[in-house]
Each structure stands twice: as structure tokens, then as C-alpha cells.
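quick one, 194 residues, struct below
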Amino acid sequence: MKKFVLAVAITSLTVVGCAAEKPPNSTNTSILEEQKDSLHQSVTLANGLIELQFPVGWYKNESEHPYDLQYFSKNQNMNTGVFLYKSEDLSKQSTPQRIFERQIDDLKSKRKNFTIIEPKQTENLGDKTITTAVYSGERNVSRYYYKFTLVEFADNREQFLVALQVAIPSEWSQSQPILEEITRSARVVSSAGL
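---
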């Protein structure tokens, strides 16, 4: 009897395992999306119109800060602060690029030995245009990398984001792709109310 139950169990596992298998050249996007969702958490800005994806384990800064949103990595070796701007709240002379440059200049005035690591680059991703620049600066006894990112949405030119992301230089090769993925994940959820 035990051999019969074991044989049925092995046969069942084999059938279930084979049934879920896909041909090597096909992709199962629903499984990929589920995996992505298990690795990321969706965070919506206060206005409910913009969403970003942060790695699971990152947490919201509940303390007072100047950003519309700020999240820290589990070990606090990285963080992302996001400013949301609405065009209607800006003067006619203000542009997203000017706001981006102003954020860089503001931090430059607050850090020592502020130098460029990666010059400004702009990339069109279809649904958004992303402009980035990376600087190094010293605060107190430590040195940090500061990644500035401007996100302009193709379908909603009435609002844009400027993100300031901070990482430790010795961990930059591991941190950079994570920080880039966060800003690339920015998307318009809805344009209602604008």
C-alpha cells in the first residue's frame, strides 16, 4: 500500500511539474509580473497621480523632510527623495530643466568638494523622458554620490518629478541599477483632476 501511495505521489508531482512548463522560447508574462510584484512595492505620491516602484524592504521616511516622498533602503545605504511639480504652480520662466538645475545648485551649495561623476544624459523611453546627472559631495566626515533625475511624462506634461538619490561611493556599482530602476518605474496612474 505504501508503494502505491508513493507511486501516485511521484506521478502527480511529475504531471503537475510538466503541465506548468512552457516551451523554451515562450514567455509567461503573468508569472513575470507576479515575480516583479513580489520584488517591488508600488508607492503612489500624495496626489495619487504618480506611482513608483521601490524594492521590497525599502521603507518610507516618516520624519519631516523636504520631499513629497522619501524612501530608504533596508540598510539605509541608499535613499530616494522625490519632488513632484505641477506646471500650473510654476512661473512662466520656469521649465523642468531649470528646476532640475536648481536642485543640483541647491545641493552644491550645501556640500563640500561637489564634483561631477556622470555628466547630464537624457534618454527618451517613449512614455517618459529621463534626464540624469551624478555628483559626488562631502557632508560632515562622509562622501556620497548624488544622482539627480528629472522625469517628464509624455502623456502628462502638466507635472514632472525631480528625484535626488543618495548612495555610498564604494557600493555604487550595486546601487546604481537599483536607483535607476526606481526612477524608470515612475508612471502616470491617472490624469484626473488636472
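The chain has one domain: 41-188.
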